[in-house]
Amino acid sequence: MSMQCLVEGEIAFENTGASFVGATAYIRLEAANQTDAASSIIAEQVIPDVSHEAGDSQTLIIRLSGQIPNEKTSCIVTVHIDVDGDRQVSQGDYINMESYPVITYGHPQQISISVRQVR
Hints:
Blueprint (H helix, E strand, L loop, with lengths): L3 E10 L6 E12 L8 E13 L6 E8 L8 E8 L11 E3 L4 E2 L7 E8 L2
Parallel strand pairs: 1-8
Antiparallel strand pairs: 1-4, 2-3, 2-5, 5-6, 5-7, 6-8
């Protein structure tokens, strides 16, 4: 099966966060059908060496490619900007605080995701 673009868009930083350099962004398209089960990853984009200047309105452009999921699969996008390099969500990192459903059930392929610093 061939890979195709499933989701594309941008990540915007809330104005309340601190500046950083050298972070890694992990953007995942996940199947989130079962309430009690862990989500499975459909596609992932890793962006190394991400920097952000506090108060700057810059965005990160994202593009997740993979195989089209079953139309009955609920899909969401999650973002983790790993500032300290430990690959775990921790204080100082940036994550999305809202759910971003995409692709299936009439949800869009184009998205704009807001991330906030973990305090």
